[in-house]
TrEMBL record:
GO terms for biological process: response to antibiotic. It is a multi-pass membrane protein. InterPro entries: MATE_fam, MATE_MepA-like, MATE_MepA_subfamily, MdtK-like. The chain crosses the membrane at residues 20-41, 61-83, 95-117, 137-158, 165-185, 197-216, 237-258, 270-291, 322-346, 358-381, 393-411, 417-436. It is found in: Cell membrane. GO terms for cellular component: plasma membrane. This is Multidrug export protein MepA.
Length: 441
């Protein structure tokens, strides 16, 4: 099949970029917004302690998505490169190998997790007052683990297949079903955190089935096909996907460290404030990831065609989009702090509400810098330079943020926790810009 069908080279580069960027960003917004709505339902239907319990559970969900990203990003990059070379056979074999591998791996993860549920809950930082709700939430999420991983992989690869709009539709289906089921299970039937977990799990089943029907239709470029267990291909997938996986996984580790630090230096109420920050931070981060994912299929395609000029143009377009998104995001968070926080915390809780608004504004400064680190890391992954991409991802997502957390606590005690992300993103930006300059000089 002609790869022109996949990328549509009849359009100008800017229109092709927007064709991929807009659906990717919308898909990420929808995902983030229904995650926020999930938190709002939990807070209003089961209480603020339940909201903190879900936040404590988040690192495990980060782990599930990190596994999917590990395979999905690598596979989609390799598939796009093969399509750029008009090698449909290897593209289909890579696609099939990827889906089967993550499906088997997810079953293994579910079994191990069920057998160690108590240990996982305690490791994540569950307290005496939250452990029962943390275990209730996790036990159901674990049950649906396979649908989380496969659905996200389909969503990423369907864009590489040339149907970015369908990716958005799939996410919207998942979002709407999750919101409706949240209302039923949490608000109307009073199932609390269990209801929120069931709603989220069922929504992933719906999106998985929707994406699966696409790949079984005739108009799909990519098809399921027979394949051999090529461990060199798996190794290649893992090496490319590792940076983005690190970003997601380290996000979970950081949430866990922040939760434990807040409990130690401030108290349990700080977990509620941090839960609000986490939901909004997810929306912001996913916006930046959406821009990056809009660039990656095109960048990988032209990298496969050895068209370096077009690859550079795509990077410039992405950086410009990130600049606009960063300024708009920061401005919205500063202007609309009160209504944003009131979605999760009642203004009647005066002390908690005012404190949450203050720390939210402090944390929001980091939104001015995070996007550049995400897109530059994604760019290096798209041109099969996983070393640099991993360096940036590990720096911003794990190493520098942990160092910043400890430094800011030493200097400012507990209040330094809220400022540590700002320092981390700025320091990482120096590394990102240095590596980018080195690449093009």
């Amino acid at each position: 099949m002609d790869t022109k069908i996949c990328i549509n080279e009849d359009l100008s580069l800017s229109k092709r970029f927007l064709k991929y960027l807009v659906p990717s960003v919308i898909a990420m917004w929808v995902f983030s917004l229904y995650t926020m709505i999930d938190g709002i339902f939990v807070s209003r239907g089961a209480g603020e302690l339940a909201l903190a319990s879900v936040n404590i559970s988040m690192p495990f969900i980060n782990f599930i998505f990190a596994i999917s990203i590990l395979f999905s990003t690598g596979a989609s990059t390799i598939i796009a490169i093969y399509l750029g070379k008009n090698d449909l056979k290897n593209a289909n074999e890579t696609f099939s190998l990827n889906i089967v591998t993550i499906a088997i791996l997810s079953i293994f993860i579910s079994i191990i997790s069920f057998l160690n549920l108590d240990k996982i809950a305690m490791f994540l930082g569950a307290t005496d007052s939250t452990i029962s709700m943390v275990k209730d939430y996790l036990s159901i999420i674990i049950l649906f683990n396979g649908f989380f991983t496969v659905s996200y992989s389909f969503e990423v690869i369907i864009k590489t297949d040339g149907f970015p709009f369908l990716a958005t539709i799939g996410v919207v289906i998942s979002a709407i079903s999750n919101i409706v089921l949240d209302y039923l299970f949490v608000i109307k039937w009073g199932y609390g955190v269990k209801g929120a977990a069931i709603a989220t799990g069922l929504s992933q089943i719906f999106s998985t089935l929707f994406f699966l029907t696409h790949f079984l239709r005739k108009n799909s470029t990519l098809k399921f096909t027979k394949f051999k267990w090529n461990f060199n291909t798996i190794k290649r997938i893992l090496s490319i996907g590792f940076p983005d996986c690190t970003t997601e996984l380290s996000g979970g580790i950081v949430i866990m460290l922040f939760n434990q630090s807040l409990l130690k230096f401030i108290g349990e109420n700080a977990l509620v404030s941090y839960s609000v920050i986490c939901y909004v931070n997810t929306l912001v981060l996913m916006t930046m990831v959406g821009i990056t994912q809009g660039m990656q299929p095109l960048s990988s395609f032209y990298y496969g065609k050895e068209d370096s000029d077009t690859v550079k143009k795509l990077l410039k377009m992405s950086l410009k989009a990130i600049s606009i998104a960063s300024i708009v995001t920061f401005s919205v968070c500063m202007i609309f702090t009160k209504p944003i926080v009131s979605l999760f915390i009642s203004p009647k809780e005066i002390a908690l509400f005012n404190t949450s608004m203050t720390v939210f504004r402090i944390f929001s400064i980091s939104f001015l810098f995070v996007g550049y680190n995400v897109v530059i890391s994604g760019f290096f992954a798209s041109i099969e330079n996983p070393f640099v991409s991993t360096l940036i991802s590990l720096s911003r997502g794990l190493i520098i943020i942990i160092l910043s957390l400890f430094i800011m606590i030493l200097i400012f005690d507990g209040q330094g926790i809220w400022m540590s992300t700002i320092l981390s993103e700025i320091l990482c930006l120096f590394i990102s810009l240095f590596m980018l300059k080195k690449k093009f000089t």
